[in-house]
Every structure is written in C-alpha cells, then in structure tokens.
Amino acid sequence: MARILVIDDEPNICRMLQLTLKAAGHEVEVAYDGLEGIAKFGNGDAWDLVLLDQRMPDVEGLYVLKELKERNSNAKIIMITAFGTIDLAVSAMKLGATDFLRKPFTAKTLRGAVEAALNKTAAAPAESQGLTYGFTTVNGYHIEFQPDTALYTGGKFEQTFTITSPSGEKSQCKVVLLPHIIELVKAYADREQFAGGNRFWQALCEEALANYLWQHAELPPNNLLQVEELTTGMRRWIDAVLTTV
Known about the structure:
By secondary structure, this protein is an alpha/beta fold. It is built from 8 helices and 11 strands. Strands 6, 7, 8, 9, 10 and 11 form a 6-stranded mixed β-sheet that branches. It has a 5-stranded parallel β-sheet with strand order 2-1-3-4-5, sandwiched between helices.
C-alpha cells in the first residue's frame, strides 16, 4: 500500500482517482488547488506518490511541481492534464516529473502508471537533453533510446527503441520515417543537412513515438510506427531544434 496525494481542482476527477486507487489498496488524500497541495505535501516524507493536475485556478501544475521537487528531490510525481501537449510533458520531465498522464485515461492506464511510478527511482530535475528526451515516460510507457540501431536505406530512416510498459514488460519498437517525410522535413527546414547528422533523425523518431504514446496510451500495432504525416507537433519540434542548435 502507498500513500498518495492527489492535487486537482475537479471534484469528479478527484473522486474517480480516489475510488480507483483505494480499490487497488492505496491510501489517498486530496488537495483541491495547488497551494493547498503544497501545504499538505510539507517536506514530502509522508507521501509515496503525488498525482498533480497541470491546469488549476490558483497556480499551474508546473509551478507546483517545481516547488515540490525543491522541497523533496526524491518525490515521485505524475502530472495529469487534458490540455497538455508532448512539449508540456517534456517540460515536466525536465523539472523531475516521474510520468505524464493525458486525460481522459482509463482506470487500467491509471493503475499501470501508478504502479510503474512506485517501482521507479524518483527523477531529479534534468538539464536540457538537447535533441533527445533520453529517458521519457508518457502514460506509463518508458522510452529508452537504443544507440547503434539507426538504419538509413532506400530513402527512409529507421530507429529502434526499447519500451517498458506500465506492467514492466519490455519490447522493441521501430519507428520509420518514410522518404516523403524526410523530404518534407528538409523542405520545411529549408536545408539538406542538419547539425548532428543521424542524431537529428533519431530524435525526430523519438518525438514521433512519444507523440503516439501520448495520444493512444498503447504501443503501435506490431510495434511498428511508420510516420506518414508531418504533423503540427513535429513542425514545432523542428522549429525548437533549429533555434537551439
């Protein structure tokens, strides 16, 4: 059994979290805004895990996350939101979040993310990871970059990642950037070559995989993700990379 603090301003969400987690054997207490959550958290020693909403009326979740991690660097904190993007998830990871859950989520996804977080070493606030997230957890799925698995052939780029599911099962997942996507990226960026060479394409594969897990909370069919569209999120990612390298 774990002691879990829920910080969320929506009573219905809090009630659902309480019922689901208590049924799993955990002890749950609720704070209905960020400042109350900070006060109940104290020095963090009383809590095994915090579930923290991003959008609240008094202070936003990222502010609360930063405050909690400053009080206790070992705190395990899962951010939850209905309004976030993968960019917000990465920002939360850099501040030390253990996971990032996208609303609405099922009771199964919640239980899996909670168990995965409880069994995981707490994340410390991280310095910028440059082109890659490094080790990212989204909706309970942990992405681990695998070096030396890149393959550029026939005009397409392939990269393999190790994914740990919320239940702890490890599997290999391949991401493929199809030839027309590579050409679209080059046209959008108005360049043929990118700083870092293959590292740029590997990180773009990681972005696409993180986005898929963010949207679907499950692995792609047959553990294969073929990127067939240059999405708005990918364009934002490219813009961010080009301004930092």
